[in-house]
Design a protein that fits this description.
seven-stranded mixed β-sheet; Rossmann fold; 236 residues; alpha/beta; 7 helices; binds S-adenosyl-L-homocysteine; globular
Amino acid sequence: MKKVLFLSLVCILNCEGKMSQRQAPQSDGYFERRQKMVEQQIVARGVSDECVIAAMRSLPRERFVPSAYSDRAYEDYPLPIGHNQTISQPYIVAYMTELLQLDGAEKVLEIGTGSGYQAAVLGECAAAVYSIEIVTPLCNESRELLADLGYENVHVRCGDGYDGWPEEAPFDAIIVTAAPVSVPQKLIEQLANNGRMIVPVGRFVQNLMLITKDESGRIAEEKLIAVRFVPMTRGD
Ligand code: SAH
């Protein structure tokens, strides 16, 4: 009990300044919609990871979509972000992040930065995030927005993520948000022992796959749900 109290106190002292920059003000026009999104689309559907829920309650999702769509930023579907790409449906972001079972200490690789929203959720729930985006303008915009929101622990690289980010490997968790036809071998190699990777696989019909490595490096695969992501370009 004492330990819990002490830890919360440390967090109150240390975390508030850090969060205030990122959190949207409670009085902004989106506050109600943001809470409703989390209650109805995320908690009601069974996501219970507290960090994911807290991150999505506070992140200004309207800043991650083009201004023409800011009014729809909290709706239950993906939205276009230009260059034929999309920001994922909020529930999918929550579901995939929860599956990574982050406890705050991890180094995470994301392939497909897109708007940067998923990277921001990861930035709240992991120690460091390395995210790669192949469309240069999207890459630059999301890097700028993440820096503006204060995410010093999120690193965005422009380029093809098919071969991962070998200089920073291994990663405790890997999340792929564009669908390859089969799981890129290099990504499996860059997953740390006891690591978890979540990746949509397939061309027309895609399945979300959870790939885990045990403490001796043995790999296991589990097919989860049918999903629809933009294809991973090149490298297939
Ligand atoms: N995680 C994003 C979702 C973006 S959609 C978000 O929260 O908004 C998937 C993204 O993957 C697109 O922006 C697309 O350009 C990118 N992508 C596709 N193939 C890629 C590749 N080989 N390497 C890196 N990014 C890729």
